[in-house]
Amino acid sequence: MEHHGAQSGDAPHAHTASLSFSYPDERRARIVEASVAVEVGDIDDARSQATVARDGDTVEVTVNAADLVALRAGLNSWTRMVGVAEDVADAADRVTDESTKSKGT
């Protein structure tokens, strides 16, 4: 499993939740993972941090937080980021499909 996340020396957090996102193929999972993994560390703070990992066609985001409010905020943020990455990948596929069709006619 490819893994992007905090360094092992970081302080432990009391609450952890993981989100798993499955895709039709490994290519799409790799695109989403690469899109959101760049945010790891950038949006972490003293109360929460996250890791992103991919195993085949599944992307997993794990949020660790000091309290439940920070956990909820982290889960909401990462869910939105994954959603945006999925929307952009879908839009890119549509543009590519339209371009391919127009070249064939």
TrEMBL record:
Region span, Disordered: 1-22
Pfam family for this entry, one: Pcc1
InterPro entries: CTAG/Pcc1
Family, as annotated: Belongs to the CTAG/PCC1 family.
Official protein name in the record: KEOPS complex subunit Pcc1
